[in-house]
Amino acid sequence: MPEALRTPGNAYLKSPLFESAFLAPDRNAAAAAATSLIETQQPQYFRPYAVAQIADSRITGAEFSHWTSVCTDDKLMRALLHVYLLTDYQTFSFFHKDFFLDDLNSRRPRFCSSLLVHAILAHACLIHLPFPDRVEYWNPQSLGYKFFAEARRLWDMDRLEPDSVTTIQAGMIMNIIYNVYSMDKVGLSYGAQASAMAYKMGLFKLPDEVTDPSLQIVRDFTAWGLYYGISFQCYHLMTPSPLQYEPAAPLPDPDTNPEWYGEFLLQYPSNQKNDSHELSSLGQVQIRYLVYIASGRRGAFQ
């Protein structure tokens, strides 16, 4: 670290992150013992995020046979679901992972669907490092191609049915997949359809009465996730947005209502303590920033 930054008032010099990265090996025994204690109790400062494992039995025990026939390897699909939730879901959270995982394992179609499962697994194939062909989206032999082909088929079928929250969520994930393919115009068409469904279903409006708290959380979470995802893309691509207005439901305070955002317990190697990782603070900052920049980008896709 440059000496100019080593000032007495620099709070970073007293942080665990600095301790783990910059302290010399020959530091005194007391400092070494303190650092060892921090490493045991707060491993997130000493281990790369990529080596963490989500400690959730709903993932490690998930069975997918009810939702897909594309693949029969549950162990592989658990790994795909895990890498998706650990990485890309942290940036674009289009569905509430707790309600999704509960229904995935209970085989309930309320907050989980075959379309949504195939969209998630197709996206996960793009970021699963053990797949040497993960970038070959044109290869019909790749697992990602097969999952996405089935997702597109199910999308066409679901569009003939009444609109649902899971269809909106899947549409946004398919939007991102096409963006990864460098086919953002096609991807944004899915985002536009998902937005139209959300407005039609009233996701952006406050209900007259909340009769089902779980459903209301999922609806509000989906509305804000969609709003963030569309706004981010349109700002980045300098494209007019299909969004008419932001969701009416206020974002809950993450300190008093963290369950609205969802929580991850992460297990790091050589450590038995689960570290709590919340989407709440980051998610709220991301969304509030996009509320500002999206206000000037409303219109229609061109």
From TrEMBL:
The UniProt record lists the keyword Transcription? no
Instruction: Show where the Xylanolytic transcriptional activator regulatory domain sits.
Output: 82-228
Q: Which residues form a coiled coil?
A: none
Keyword terms of this UniProt record: Nucleus
Name of the protein this chain belongs to: Xylanolytic transcriptional activator regulatory domain-containing protein
Oxidoreductase is among the record's keywords: no
